[in-house]
Design a protein that fits this description.
- The structure is a single chain.
- By secondary structure, this protein is an alpha+beta fold.
- It has one domain: Phage tail protein-like (STM4215-like, 2-Layer Sandwich), CATH 3.30.2000.
- Helix content is 25%, strand content 39%.
- The chain has helices spanning 3-16, 79-98, and strands at residues 20-21, 39-49, 59-73, 109-119, 123-137.
- It has a five-stranded mixed sheet, covered by helices on one side.
- A hairpin with a 3-residue loop joins strand 4 and strand 5 (123-137).
- The longest helix is centred in the middle third of the chain and has 20 residues, at 79-98.
Length: 138
């Protein structure tokens, strides 16, 4: 496959949940607050070769780590309510990403690995890590 196929596949899963790609590519620091709650930033962080049998000389398996960032609105009047909503949305994202019917067409394996909630002065940030195994055939 390729980076673009994996990225487009993950974006397709998130688009089906109502999210679109943010205008920023690295962080939500310079993004308009109107993008909070409806956009994401996606990036491939690293990859490494999977050990495979010597008989599979016509392909390579690339273990990749992907990160997806989601920013959600924050205000002192409703932070507790927002956190409940954020966790409900996070659970729906994990469920969709971990469902093989959503990724079997573009990846050998795609698994949710971890998530982390951070707080900034303007927004809550969910950072989600995915483990992807891509197949390169030659």
């Amino acid at each position: 496959m390729s980076h673009k196929i994996i990225k487009d596949g993950i974006i397709g899963i998130l688009n089906a949940l109502g999210y679109s790609e943010a205008s920023a590519i690295e962080s939500f620091e310079d993004v308009s607050s109107q993008e909070y709650g409806s956009t994401f930033i996606i990036k491939c962080l690293e990859g490494s070769q999977e050990t495979a049998s010597e008989t599979l000389a016509d392909r390579a398996y690339d273990n990749q780590t992907w990160e997806i960032l989601f920013a959600f609105d924050r205000s002192s009047q409703n932070d507790a309510v927002n956190l409940d909503i954020i966790h409900t949305k996070k659970d729906a994202i994990i469920t969709a990403i971990d469902d093989p019917t959503n990724w079997v067409s573009f990846a050998r394996t795609l698994r949710y690995d971890s998530w982390k909630l951070s707080t900034t002065s303007n927004y809550f940030l969910i950072s989600m890590t995915l483990k992807v195994v891509d197949v390169y055939t030659y």
